[in-house]
Each structure stands twice: as C-alpha cells, then as structure tokens.
Amino acid sequence: MNISQLLANIVQTKIDIEIKGLCLNAQSTQPGDLFIALQGKLTHGADYINQAIDKGCVAILVDSKEIECVIPSIRIDNLSQYLQTLANTFYKNAIKVNIISITGTNGKTSVAYFISQLLTKLGIKNGLIGTLGITHSQQLSLNTTPDILTLYQVLDNYYQNNIHHAILEVSSHALTQDRIAGLNIKQAIFTNLTQDHLDYHHTLDKYQATKEKLFVLDTVESVILNQDDSHYKHFLNITKDKKRISYSLGDFDSIKTIEQGFLVQLDHYVFEIPFLGEFNLLNILAALNSVEALGFKRDDIIPLFYQLLPPPGRMQRIEPHLAWIDYAHTPDAIGNAITTLKKHYPNFKIRIVFGCGGNRDKDKRAEMGKIASNLADTIILTNDNPRSENPKTIIENILSGIDDSYKLDIIENRQLAIETAITTLKENECLLIAGKGHETIQQFSDKTIYLNDLEIAQNSTKAI
Ligand SMILES: CC(=O)N[C@H]1[C@@H](OP(=O)(O)OP(=O)(O)OC[C@H]2O[C@@H](n3ccc(=O)[nH]c3=O)[C@H](O)[C@@H]2O)O[C@H](CO)[C@@H](O)[C@@H]1O[C@H](C)C(=O)N[C@@H](C)C(=O)N[C@H](CCC(=O)O)C(=O)O
Ligand SMILES: Nc1ncnc2c1ncn2[C@@H]1O[C@H](COP(=O)(O)OP(=O)(O)OP(=O)(O)O)[C@@H](O)[C@H]1O
Ligand SMILES: N[C@H](CCC[C@H](N)C(=O)O)C(=O)O
C-alpha cells in the first residue's frame, strides 16, 4: 500500500512510497516497514529510528516531534490516537477473525492452551496469541498481548491463511493501552482477579475496572465467568446484555484427587483430568464452556480431555523426582501451587525455590513471602527476572513478609538454587520451582542471559 493512501484520512502527504508493513517496535522491524515512533511512558520511539532504518524500514511517522533522518518522515501530533485506523486500513482482514479472549490474573495461558487444543482436535484451525508466543507466525512479541499493530498483522495473516479463529490472552496492560481496539472479540472469559500489577493500576478496584472493559465490548456475544471468584457477581452484573455462562467447581458431581490429577464426574460423564491443581479443574471448565458456546456438543468435547497436554512450565513434572516447574508469580498462584502439591502428596514436605520479578508490583513480594513461608516447609529464595532493580532489594522485600524465625536459604544465582534444591531433595519432599515456567531468559539491568528452569532441573537430576 502507498503511504499516501494509508494516511488519506489522517494527513495529506506528497511522499510516494510503497510500504509492506507497520511496526511499533524497532527491534521487530521488517524490510519495507513503516516505523511508527511513539512517545511512550519510558522513552520515545524516535530514539530507535537508526535501528529501524538498519533493519530496512522505508519511512517513519513520528509522534509530536521533528526528527532528522535519511529516509522520509512525517510528524503527526498525538499519533497514538490513529493507531487503530492505521492498523485497520493496512491489515483489512484482521477484524474478520473471530476472537475468543481470556483475561484474569492467573490462568489465561492455561485456558487459552486448552481451548486451542480442543478446537484443533475438533477440526477448527486456530491461532493462539499469548504468553507462550504466537502460533502460525514468525512474529515475536515482547508481551502477553502484543501491541496493536502486531496483533492486526498476525490476525490479517491468519485470515489469509484460512485461520478464522484466534484465542487471545488479554492482559490488563493491553486493555489500558487499547492494544485490542476494534478487534472482533466474540467471547470474553474471566478466570479470576487477585493481587498483581498494583504498580501499574494502583488499586485492586482500578485493576478490576480495567478488566471490565473487555466484557462490555459491543462485539462480545458471550461471556464465560468463574463463579468461584469473589468478583464474579460484579462481572455478571455488568454483562446483562450478553449471553452469560458461569462455571464453578460445584458443576462437578464428584471430584476425586488422584496422584496424576483428578477423576471427576460431570453430568453423566466420568473422566480423568490429567493435571494437578484444583485451579486446573476451573481452567478445564472455562475451556469446555467456551468450546460449547461455539456450537460443539459436550459429547464431542469431553472425550478429548484425556488427550490434552499441560501448558509448558505450568505444574510440569521433572521425572523421576517429585519436582515441578510452575509459572506461579503472584501471591494467589504461589499459594495455589503449594496447596496443590500438599493435596496430591499429603505425606510429603514441600520445598519451594522462588523469587520475584523486578519492575513489577513491589507489594506482592512480601505477600508471596508470607504465603510461601506459611505453606511450605523449606524455602530457597533466588532471583526471578530482576530487570533494572537490585536483586538484593527484591529478596529483602520478599523477606519482609517472612517471620524471622523461619529458616531459609538465599541463593541468588537461580541455576545454583535449582541445582542445590534438586540434588539435596529428600525422599519425603516435593519441590516446587516457581515463577519462570516456560521462560528461557533471565533479565538483569546490564545483561540478559539464557536460563531455562526445566533444563537446569533435568540436568541436575542426571547429575545425582
Ligand atoms: C508498561 C507497559 O506496559 N509498557 C508497554 C507500552 O510501552 P510504552 O507505550 O510506554 O512505550 P515505551 O516503552 O516508553 O517505548 C516508547 C516507544 O518506543 C518503542 N521502543 C521501545 C524500546 C525499544 O527497544 N525499541 C522501540 O522501538 C516502543 O515500541 C514504543 O512505541 O507499550 C509497548 C507497545 O505495546 C509495550 O511493549 C510496553 O510493554 C513493556 C515492554 C512491558 O514490560 N509491559 C508489561 C508490564 C506488560 O505489558 N505485561 C503484560 C502482561 C501482564 C500479565 O498479565 O501478567 C503484557 O501484556 O505483556
Ligand atoms: N485458574 C487459575 N487460578 C489460579 N491460579 C492459576 C490458575 N491457572 C493457573 N494458575 C497458576 O498460575 C500460574 C500462571 O498460570 P497461567 O500462565 O495460565 O496464567 P496467566 O494468567 O497466563 O499468567 P501471565 O499472564 O502472567 O502469563 C500457573 O503456573 C499456576 O500456578
Ligand atoms: N506476565 C507477567 C509475567 C511475570 C513472570 C515473572 N517471571 C516475572 O518476571 O515477574 C508480567 O509481565 O508481570
């Protein structure tokens, strides 16, 4: 598309250049792209134009600022307000894709992963966009919910490749920043709301108000709500004009905990759910209701459950030990993960290795320390992703929630912490390695290193 055609409803330009794509982050610029340099909270995209040019961008739109550069550039004031128009004009097919969206503090990835597998097994081609990445696409995303241009590009591409359904994890940051504006979101699923991201939203009420935005979108036809969450009634009340579907652990006629998961009865079906954690029973119900709302029959969905795979890094067992990798990085999730192991392995002691991410909600750190020390028998505190913060300060913040009399170890180096935990694990102990799940990098202020909890744990196992 020619740039003058793209900008027709925004600004007149004599620049005559064909562009192949739109891009917000210089790191992901492709040859032929138009780079859109926005003023952000931390920095201005204009600081990265050299990188964008090196990667082959052919023109630049700059937010509220004059720049000098070797390729054509156009200044547009308040440029961010035009992002949806630009995205929609360039990636016309994006809004034709039917989107199932999931929001909530915990469980988005798990529910999305289950829905995607079910739809695939039922013969529906679908794309999955979230913390684990973007399927059927070379696009990389820095975020759980990608920026609006990346989203439109991926969805447009899906449509052209006959993928007419997408499952999208929607973070509260994405809702605040309008990353999903204008998309054809048909279903909205609510998993739960507990403490996280208060650095960004400041209060739980504001955090909830942000999540609400997804459920009242005009395009949303059905909402699927977790009745067991304390915020359920609120979400039910604001969605009176939608088809409302609720799910609850009480939907099961019986739940029997077994070592590898649960044996449940639902209506006249008795089946096994091969995942640990009661929260996964809720995740499964969310997925079941979502797929059912698309028109499939329970008789066709339920027999597929035993074939489902767990999402990578979520309660993932490291054989042969009683050790698990889990992505729990909130107070609620840490509590759930430990309780889960206690429930499935009632005669075992629990050891946990965890830390907290830097540049994220500081208030959750002491809370995570408190919950972990109340529930686990031994703790090794370590680094998560310190990002630009001092790792020692993060650990001190966690310690402030732990009673002085609680005996714990601090091993900042995460690899060493995991190796130590596994090689000294006792016969009567279960180990939980929490916080980084599937992640394969660790971010510090001055470096980013390759680090994979699963590999470290597997290798330490071999070393015994
Ligand atoms: C605090 C926050 O959410 N920031 C997001 C926001 O950034 P911003 O608009 O303030 O922009 P900025 O970082 O100041 O940068 C300014 C401009 O320069 C560009 N830039 C910036 C850096 C660079 O190296 N190259 C580059 O081109 C940016 O794309 C941006 O256009 O908009 C950007 C584009 O959409 C996001 O990538 C960025 O996410 C940052 C990286 C981030 O860490 N976000 C986290 C907190 C987040 O969004 N997390 C949620 C998941 C939370 C959960 O559910 O657990 C998520 O959806 O990922
Ligand atoms: N429904 C749930 N309720 C509470 N905790 C859950 C639930 N599902 C998963 N968890 C716990 O939370 C952790 C993160 O799960 P998951 O990745 O599915 O959530 P998420 O919302 O996608 O998180 P994020 O957006 O931060 O990546 C899991 O490793 C598990 O410990
Ligand atoms: N989506 C979450 C992931 C946190 C993962 C944890 N390992 C950390 O770095 O804090 C966030 O961006 O807050």
Automatic annotation (TrEMBL):
One of its GO terms (molecular function) is tetrahydrofolylpolyglutamate synthase activity. It comes from the Bacteria. The modification N6-carboxylysine is found at K211. Pfam families: Mur_ligase, Mur_ligase_C, Mur_ligase_M. It comes from Ruthia magnifica subsp. Calyptogena magnifica. Catalyzes the addition of meso-diaminopimelic acid to the nucleotide precursor UDP-N-acetylmuramoyl-L-alanyl-D-glutamate (UMAG) in the biosynthesis of bacterial cell-wall peptidoglycan. PROSITE patterns: FOLYLPOLYGLU_SYNT_1 (PS01011). Residues 102-289 form the Mur ligase central domain. The gene is murE. This is UDP-N-acetylmuramoyl-L-alanyl-D-glutamate--2,6-diaminopimelate ligase. A motif (Meso-diaminopimelate recognition motif) lies at residues 384-387. Its EC number is 6.3.2.13. It catalyses: UDP-N-acetyl-alpha-D-muramoyl-L-alanyl-D-glutamate + meso-2,6-diaminopimelate + ATP = UDP-N-acetyl-alpha-D-muramoyl-L-alanyl-gamma-D-glutamyl-meso-2,6-diaminopimelate + ADP + phosphate + H(+). Residues 18-91 form the Mur ligase N-terminal catalytic domain. GO terms for cellular component: cytoplasm. Its main location: cytoplasm.
